[in-house]
Design goal:
Strand content: 15-25%
CATH superfamily: NAD(P)-binding Rossmann-like Domain
Shape: globular
GO molecular function: oxidoreductase activity
Distance between the termini: 71 Å
Bound molecules: 1,4-dihydronicotinamide adenine dinucleotide, D-galactaro-1,5-lactone
Order of helices and strands: EHEEHEHEEHEHHEEHH
Keywords: NAD, Oxidoreductase
InterPro entries: Epimerase_deHydtase (IPR001509), NAD(P)-bd_dom_sf (IPR036291)
Oligomer: single chain
Protein name: NAD-dependent dehydratase
CATH architecture: 3-Layer(aba) Sandwich
Number of domains: 1
CATH class: Alpha Beta
Family: Belongs to the NAD(P)-dependent epimerase/dehydratase family.
Radius of gyration: 18 Å
Length: about 270
């Protein structure tokens, strides 16, 4: 006897930032949750592999373009934007206006939930010996971090005003492996990223939930108690990489990578003097 596959929870998911490091991963894994994944970026993307895999080039700074992009979508995983520290003017269009355009399009098209890629850098100016949770006041470590803080506040506003739910993922360091000592605390494996986004899409009644995106790392700085309702249970740990990471020279105690949770981001800039 043949069994038919279970229906997927969404018809169409929009993924922004699909050409990026995390977007390329999620473009594959989101196929499990939707009949169609609509991948979008300003940069070139791998071509579509069929009707289930739409590809649309769009600049997030283009309000009308984003409104068209969101048409016929059920939910949005919003990763697109500048992902490192840059001058404010560079961040403004992609991250601040871009996220505004996503929320406005979501309002116009009746989208119920957005998964927003925030960043650990919204609390980057805390020292590495300070434990944090989602209720700790933010200390953004640059213009990039400020844009993510604004995105989180936008999520709160659109929930209270229009009922659009958001899970803001304060992603730590999501790469194939931790690259330095700091990332032994902040690393998020790609497998745990997939699980985190899955819970953010599927958990009921999230309102605006903020969660730090990290694997089950021994020396983590962050406590996700306020997001326990999401059911995120990381399976990986940076510990297996400790021997190879600790072969690297130890940064000085005065180095931002030793002092602050945001590491080198806290020392970027000033720009354009
Ligand atoms: P990435 O830089 O590889 O990807 C971001 C994508 O956004 C790029 O493909 C870029 O072309 C696109 N983009 C930039 N400006 C755009 C615009 N105006 N319109 C449309 N698309 C635009 O970054 P990554 O690592 O994949 O991160 C994805 C998201 O997660 C980003 O929002 C980043 O800030 C956030 N994040 C990532 C972390 C990580 O460890 N990978 C840590 C914390 C947050
Ligand atoms: C981020 O927000 C960046 O997007 C990513 O490239 C990493 O640098 C990460 O934070 C980190 O803090 O390691």
């Amino acid at each position: 006897m043949t069994t038919s596959p279970l229906p997927k929870p969404f018809h169409r998911i929009l993924l922004t930032g699909a050409a990026g490091g995390l977007g390329q991963i999620l473009r594959e894994t989101l196929q499990a949750h939707a009949a169609i994944v609509r991948a979008s970026d300003i940069s070139p993307m791998a071509p579509s592999r069929g009707a289930h895999d739409e590809v649309i080039t769009c600049n997030l700074a283009d309000k009308a373009g984003v409104a068209a992009l969101v048409k016929d979508v059920d939910t949005i995983v919003h990763l697109g934007g500048i992902s490192v520290e840059r001058a404010f003017e560079d961040i403004l269009d992609a991250n601040i206006r871009g996220t505004f355009h996503i929320y406005e399009a979501a309002r116009l098209h009746g989208i119920k939930r957005i998964v927003f890629a925030s960043s650990n850098h919204v609390t980057g100016f805390y020292s590495q010996d300070t434990p944090l949770d989602a209720h700790t006041p933010r200390r953004p470590d640059g213009y990039y971090a400020l844009s993510k803080a604004y995105g989180e506040d936008m999520a709160t506003f659109y929930f209270h005003r229009y009922g659009i739910e958001t899970v803001s993922l304060r992603i730590g360091s999501s790469f194939p492996e931790p690259r330095n000592r700091r990332m032994l605390s902040t690393w998020l494996s790609y497998g745990d990223l997939d699980h985190l986004v899955t819970r953010a899409l599927l958990a009921p009644d999230v309102g605006h939930t903020v969660i730090y995106g990290m694997s089950d790392n021994r020396d983590a700085w962050w406590d996700n108690r306020h997001a326990a309702h999401l059911g995120f249970e990381p399976a990986d740990s940076s510990e297996v990489f400790r021997p190879q990471v600790e072969c690297q020279p130890q940064p000085a105690m005065s180095d931002p990578d030793s002092l602050y949770q945001g590491g080198a981001f806290t020392a970027a800039g000033p720009f354009g003097d």
